[in-house]
Amino acid sequence: MRLFEFIVQGGSIMYFLVLMNVVGMSIMFWRGYVLYEFKKNLQSHTESIIQILHKIGLSKTGSQSLPVVKDTISSEVHKLEVGLNTIKIIATIAPLLGLLGTVVGILSAFQVIAQEGLSNPAAFADGISLALITTVGGLVVAIPHYIAYNYIVGFLDDTEISLENKILPIFFGN
User: Given a cut of 80, is residue 113 above it in pLDDT?
Assistant: First the structure.
């Protein structure tokens, strides 16, 4: 069976899962490119953050300015998190939509049994097929989104630590 036939057989839930997958994958590739560019230009971003800190009047001072430095770094890293919640939502909702499709398919199968009995196994199989296809569809959408979300969060945590390791010694010494 071809992919398009699976999608058509899965019905409206599969169409929605495909739409979510297209949106999520687009965001993942966009974020991947942005993060790659950020890492490639990490030194210039470090210098930019240092300039921001100097503009707000921060120079080599005591520990009372440590929260200001960390907040500034955190706010710069936070700008890289755009779209991350959408990826997380897709990773969370896709299996639930697959489960919804499962329930709808099983319900359809039982309705066929109630109306026709077990004399027509092909009609019964359509409901079961819908149930299995949407379950698979939900998992196929959720798994890469879940992996990408966790990878991006880890990358952002590492980036924030790297920026702190470069900037804090400038203001507070080694």
Answer: yes
pLDDT digits (tens, 9 = 90+) for 128-171: 888 899 999 999 999 999 999 999 999 999 999 999 999 888 87
CA distance 172 to 70: 12
pTM given for the model: 0.84
pLDDT tens, position by position, 30-46: 999 999 999 999 999 99
157: helix, strand or coil: helix
What Cα–Cα distance (Å) separates residue 39 from each residue in 25, 33, 74? Answer: 21, 10, 16
The residue whose two tokens read 């590492």 is 158
Amino acid letter for position 58:
L
Whole-number Å distance between alpha carbons of 99 and 92: 12
Handedness of CA 78, 25, 101, 134 (dihedral sign): negative
Q: Please report, for residues 112, 123, 148, the alpha-carbon distance to residue 105 in angstroms, rounded to integers and kept in the order given.
A: 11, 11, 30
**Secondary structure E strands in the chain:** none
Is the alpha carbon torsion for 162, 167, 170, 172 positive or negative? Answer: negative
